[in-house]
Design brief:
The complex is a heterotrimer of chains A (983), B (177) and C (88). Chain A is of the alpha+beta class. Chain A has 25 helices and 49 strands. The longest helix of chain A has 18 residues. Chain C has 1 helix and 6 strands, in the order βββαβββ. The longest helix of chain C has 9 residues. Classes of the chains: A alpha+beta (983), B alpha+beta (177), C mainly beta (88).
Chain lengths: 983, 177, 88
């Protein structure tokens, strides 16, 4: 086992008494509790973490946080997961990680040949190449899949749980750095409900890697003091390792919590509604664009300081600092104090802050002003840099180093502010974008509004926390702000691209997607101006890191090329998620069979036990398609069930039918207005078939409504459209006819519905001891009566969905199963056959009962489907009436419903089969086809242009294999006179 | 005990009546049931008989009574309200009752209910009709043990039981089928 | 997930509601008096306002009322409408 050669002897926030073992690319390594994977790799001197996306260049760790653009790994073992950020992953015992995007290995990578072929992979290369010959795409895609892409999806289902959690608070604070902690303390002490989230494993933010002092003590003692106070407040929730990832309307914020309080919980997605939001998300240091700026060993200055001070891990031994701002000087001093030799500070500015220069010089650090790095030497690790005067590549000087620290200025983390709908604005003094005018109840404080001085962060947070709580009604004056030394402004000099030494040199802007400054220049030459298009054409900012470090440099370079300002170029749109989210977290508890709620009728469990093949058939109900006996195929079962209904007796669970109670003195008026037919003369105890239209004349629903009492009707609707019908009716009642005395109550689940149908149905009802006379004269078609069946209180109606004599029994749900079993028992002697919904569909096709969505689709009106008889002459207004009186024949013959009998009686035309004329014009289509066991041949229904006038003609059915012919017929295949159901 | 510390159980049927109508109907019900039907949505009133009236909206109540009493009450109310605009419907089998109780009930409930159930704004005795796990639920915070009674449409009963079990479990595979 | 203020239930998430259309798009009182063009205009030219619009939303997972909401379709900003529910 290697010793940790790059670990400091003491210091940092790691627990040196708790060593941990882990493996990286198969190599066993050691780290400490408190490390991240990246700090442990640095302590072990590992410099290549992975290969880049397109050119497979070796890449190392560049940052110490969520902005990381290179260091993604694949986890193995029982925590298998792709594309994990090494910089935010806490080290644990037994961690197993591998590089992504390296084939076959990170040190010997075949894909690296693309690096030498880079002139063939320019911006937009996949829009330019792979386009021809078109039949070679399969070959290209094999190669692309092999060399491109990142980690691999895990092969095993996740054992651990993911969950969602809704949360509400008065004040939400995002970021637990100096500004966020101050805000949380002020808001929390006022008594407001506060939520503080932070994406690190401990609070402190920037201070965790800094030597700053607050109230003359190390800043981290201030942090632990404030955290203790915050945690003691009863209505403050503080979440660590929690990234706010999305900012939506009305202060709805999502946050992803990793490794929550429960050991069996992997991640929790918080869905937060906050009254006031304080963004204290800090700032991200940006790199500088120069030749080979992506080599392992090139790192952000603040990150090096963070690794050294927080983790006691030195990213190198001899460092050169390349900067354009005052912020890097303190970092150089901190690193020097922690045992890293600083060979030189290369500052692009001619006039850096004199005090700072004096301070570092006194520490023995050389400062080169108005200078630049022209080139990095070393492929697998920085070995030296070449330095020259700014914009003048003559007179190179080589400095030996193994670490190049860069700082191109600081970008406030304005992602959430921008997601909230606000527009960021460009600040020329800071050479970056800062928050613009808020459009929601949010405010940015500290570094994320461009105020980098610690003193300002502290006072900013305190004031914002107080103000936000006050708006929520909690006005308690906060204690005065803590004090600290005043630092100089960072005063950056905008530098968007250092002149490249050679034409072939490459300087990277988006490391994650391998986008270079040359790609941006090429896109500009090809005519791209909009930053949104440049992003999509070059893929800059579209990687896993979403351009957290690169985007502003891209905007700046584009401004420089086109001689305008970055403010005039503007930013691309910031969208959720701020950092990657696992699918598990998105699904939460809605996994496996809970993704869609399964509704059950009282009979559902009986079907599960008795061979029912269940499926969702509308309105989330899970119903049997058919009920197979052992050894039966689906077709066998459907044929057997269909024959039983026509020749014996079947029993069907109709409970999913939508049911709406309609009560009130204006119930008849209401029914007259929503159905095409008239309801005035319907006596109590009778049912009527109704046809309901959309206002545009389309079929909305058809069904039977029963009159139960003077002012009480019960409407049944198709199960799939129950909620649509309810919405339609409620809307009319509430918004258009508020004067009607009508109340609607949806009662679908109150009643189970069992249909006994077939020529022997009456025998079964008698065997089940129905308490009323059901002889044909005493209990007629469309009668409905309260009575008892098998000693259970029920209401029985003579209505049918199959065309056979039927008894529809409506019973309170709690007695549904009991009644079903009683009827099965009573029907035993008549071979009563349970029937599924596929069979039911076959039976209705034999009778050509119109189905909404099939024959009654978005084109068909009531006349097209042959139901014009349901529009009585002279009836007043009803919904859809005006549309049926429009001149609908302007567009030529109407698509009318007809039956089809294929010449080849064994060919069942699939739903959607086109009907064509001699010129191969489409003149219609099949809406449904079945093999009918009752007439032992195929039958189909179709919409056919002018179909009613084509009865007896032959039409052509077009399929991919061959053409079939069918005779057009009346769309009723069994009992055209309808005598059976009236029997 | 694995998972969250809660218990989930289906409760016995109750009688339920869906009551609609204006102030006159409310007065008739108040007198007959010896209860004051609340006038604001998401409020409830308990009668000494144990009956609970949930206000769904200002002219709409859900009355929970002991099972078996609903039909007599329905008939009496129909008789008393013959001359005024009203709708009374027996919905005893429309609703199923599920009880969630135990120290971590709120953690489980907050996985599926988007309204604020912090005791500051939803103290014991509160009720709300809201969405839960993709359906509608009438949530009743019964006592601070804490115990929540949840009314859902009866066809969703098993779904909500399964959903709560998974939300409380320590293993995502416990319900895989 | 916009937050809709229901006059009966308070602030609730959008997924408790169903959108019910622009309130200006009212069913005409006497459709039979309209010619085909006028009728088609009503049926097929449904308002899709850019900016502030008054809308119906149905609180199906709550009080079951149709409520009025004023929403800015550009940025989903909401404000309380000046009139209450059409049907009390």
């Amino acid at each position: 086992m290697n010793k940790q050669a790059f670990r400091t002897n003491s210091g940092g926030r790691i627990d040196r008494d708790q060593p941990l073992t882990f493996t990286f690319n198969g190599k066993r390594l050691r780290g400490y509790a408190g490390d991240t994977l990246s700090s442990a790799l640095i302590a072990n001197g590992i410099s290549i973490i992975g290969r880049s996306f397109k050119y497979h260049r070796p890449r190392g760790i560049m940052s110490a946080g969520t902005e990381e653009t290179n260091a993604f790994v694949q986890l193995f073992g029982n925590k298998e997961e792709p594309n994990v950020l090494a910089t935010t992953l806490p080290l644990y015992e037994g961690l197993e990680a591998r590089s992504v995007n390296a084939w076959p290995s990170v040190n010997f990578d075949l894909g690296g040949m693309t690096n030498f072929l880079h002139r063939f992979f320019p911006a937009g290369f996949y829009y330019k190449t792979f386009m021809w010959p078109h039949d070679r795409w399969d070959w290209y895609s094999w190669f692309i899949r092999k060399v491109a892409g990142w980690g691999a999806a895990p092969r095993k289902p996740a054992r651990n749980r993911y969950e969602h959690r809704f949360h509400h608070c008065d004040v939400m604070i995002i970021g637990a750095g100096p500004a966020g902690l101050s805000a949380a303390l002020a808001a929390g002490q006022s008594g407001a409900r506060v939520l503080l989230v932070d994406n690190q494993s401990e609070a402190g933010g920037y201070l965790l890697g800094s030597s700053a002092k607050i109230n003359s003590y190390p800043a981290l003692s201030w942090v632990s003091e404030v955290v203790a106070k915050i945690d003691a407040l009863p209505d403050v929730v503080r979440l660590k390792e929690t990234s706010a990832i999305g900012y939506y309307d009305q202060n709805f914020i999502t946050a992803l919590q990793r490794r929550p309080d429960k050991i069996w919980l992997k991640e929790r997605l918080w869905k937060i509604r906050a009254h006031q939001v304080i963004l204290a998300t800090g700032a991200i240091e940006r790199p500088i664009t120069f030749a080979n700026n992506d080599r392992p060993g090139v790192m952000l200055t603040s990150a090096a300081s963070h690794y050294c001070l927080r983790y006691g891990a030195r990213p190198g031994r001899d460092a050169v600092v390349f900067t354009n701002n005052n912020g890097s000087y303190q970092h150089a001093i901190d690193l020097k104090d922690n045992g890293i030799n600083i060979a030189a500070i290369i500052d692009t500015r001619p006039d850096p802050d004199a005090t700072l220069v004096k301070e570092v010089t006194s520490k023995g650090i050389e400062v080169l002003i108005a200078s630049q790095i022209s080139k990095v030497i070393g492929t697998r690790r920085v070995s030296a840099v070449e330095v020259c005067a700014l914009n003048d590549t003559s007179g190179q000087r080589r400095i030996i180093c193994d670490l190049l620290l860069v700082s191109g200025g600081w970008n406030p983390t304005i992602h959430l502010h921008s997601q909230s709908g606000a527009k960021p604005v460009y600040d020329p003094d800071l050479a970056t974008f800062i928050p613009g005018k808020s459009v929601q109840n949010e405010v940015s404080v500290g570094a994320c509004r461009g105020q980098f001085a610690l003193s300002v962060c502290l006072s900013d947070g305190l004031a914002a926390g107080h103000k936000a709580a006050k708006i929520c009604g909690f006005d308690v004056e906060p204690q005065s702000a803590s004090t600290c030394t005043i630092e100089p402004d960072i005063n950056p000099m905008p530098i968007w691209e250092v002149p490249l030494p050679k034409k072939s040199s490459r300087a990277f802007l988006d490391f994650n997607n391998d986008v270079t400054s040359k790609d941006i220049r090429l896109a500009e030459r090809e005519g791209y101006r909009s930053i949104e298009l440049i992003k999509r054409y070059t893929t800059a900012g579209m990687g896993i890191d979403q351009g957290k470090t690169g985007n502003v440099n891209i905007i700046g370079l584009m401004a420089q090329i086109t001689s305008t300002t970055p403010g005039a170029i503007g930013t691309t749109t910031y969208r959720p998620a701020y950092s990657p989210v696992s699918f598990g977290a998105m699904a939460g508890a809605d996994n496996s069979n809970l993704i869609i709620p399964w509704r059950r009728t009282p009979i559902t469990d009986w079907f599960i036990k008795n061979g029912g093949h269940l499926d969702e058939t509308g309105a989330l109900f899970r119903r049997p398609l058919f009920i197979a006996k052992s050894g039966e195929t689906a077709d066998d079962a459907i044929n057997r069930e269909a024959l039983a209904v026509r020749n014996g007796v079947g029993i069907y669970d109709g409970s999913p039918l939508g049911k709406i109670s309609i009560k009130g003195t204006d119930a008849v008026t209401f029914l007259d207005r929503v159905y095409t037919n008239s309801w005035g003369e319907l006596p109590i105890g009778r049912c009527k078939f109704g046809y309901m239209l959309h206002e545009d004349g389309r079929l909305l629903d058809d069904g039977v409504t029963a009159r139960l009492a003077e002012d009480h009707y019960l409407m049944s609707t198709g199960s799939g459209v129950a909620s649509v019908v309810q919405k339609h009716l409620e809307r009319l009642l509430h918004c258009d006819w508020p004067d009607l005395d009508v109340y609607l109550t949806p009662v679908t689940d109150q009643w189970a519905v069992i249909c006994v149908c077939g020529p022997l149905a009456r025998n079964v009802m008698r065997a089940a001891e129905i308490s009323i006379d059901i002889s044909p004269d005493a209990f007629k078609f469309l009668d409905t009566k309260y009575c008892r069946v098998a000693s259970i209180d029920v209401r029985v109606s003579r209505i049918t969905y199959t065309g056979e004599m039927s008894f529809e029994i409506v019973v309170a749900s709690r007695h549904g199963l009991e009644l079903w079993e009683a009827l099965i028992a009573a029907g035993k002697g008549f071979d009563i056959t349970p029937v599924g919904s596929d069979t039911s569909m076959l039976l209705r096709t034999e009778k050509a009962f119109i189905a909404a969505g099939l024959e009654g689709d978005g084109y068909a009106n009531i006349y097209d489907v042959g139901m014009g008889w349901l529009v009585p002459n002279g009836k007043g207004d009803f919904v859809g009436k005006r549309s049926t009186t429009r001149d609908l024949n302007k567009g030529g013959p109407r698509p009318e419903v007809v039956g089809l009998l294929t010449d080849d009686s064994s060919f069942v035309p699939p739903k959607g089969t086109p009907l064509i004329d001699a010129d191969r014009n489409m003149i219609g289509m099949v809406t449904i086809g079945f093999h009918s066991p009752n007439i032992d041949r195929s039958i189909a229904l179709a919409q056919l242009s002018g179909g009613r006038s084509r009865l007896g003609e032959t039409v052509t059915l077009f399929t991919k294999e061959k053409q079939y012919f069918a005779k057009v017929c009346e769309p009723v295949f069994i009992d055209p006179a309808g005598l059976r159901m009236r029997d | 005990m694995a998972g969250y510390d809660v218990s989930i159980k289906a409760l016995e049927n109750c009688g339920f009546l869906d009551l609609r109508g204006g102030e006159d109907v409310r007065q008739i019900c108040n007198k007959h049931l010896n209860i004051a039907l609340p006038t604001r949505a998401n409020k409830l009133e308990k009668a000494s008989s144990g009956a609970i009236a949930f206000c769904i909206s200002p002219n709409h109540w859900l009355l929970q009574v002991a099972d078996g009493e609903q039909l007599n009450i329905l008939q009496s109310l129909e008789y008393l309200s013959a001359s005024v605009s009203h709708s009374f419907v027996d919905v005893s089998d429309l609703y199923a009752r599920i009880q969630l109780s135990g120290p971590e009930s709120r953690e489980v409930l907050a996985q599926g209910v988007s309204i604020d159930i912090h005791p500051r704004v939803f103290p014991s005795g509160s009720t709300a009709r809201t969405g839960m796990a993709k359906t509608t639920a009438q949530i009743h915070y019964v006592n601070e043990s804490p115990t929540y009674d949840i009314l859902v449409f009866s066809s969703f009963r098993q779904h909500i039981l399964d959903w709560l079990s998974l939300a409380a479990a320590n293993d995502s595979n416990s319900l895989l089928t | 997930m916009i937050l809709i203020h229901c006059p009966h239930c308070g602030d609730r998430n959008e997924d408790e509601f169903e959108y019910g259309g622009d309130i200006e798009h009212r069913r005409p009182n006497d459709p039979d008096m309209m010619n085909d063009n006028e009728w088609c205009e009503y049926i097929y030219c449904v308002p899709n306002t850019k900016g502030w619009a008054k809308e119906y939303w149905w609180h199906i997972r709550g009080c079951n009322r149709w409520i009025l909401v004023e929403r800015n379709s550009i940025n989903n900003e909401l404000r309380k409408p000046d009139e209450g529910s059409s049907r009390e």
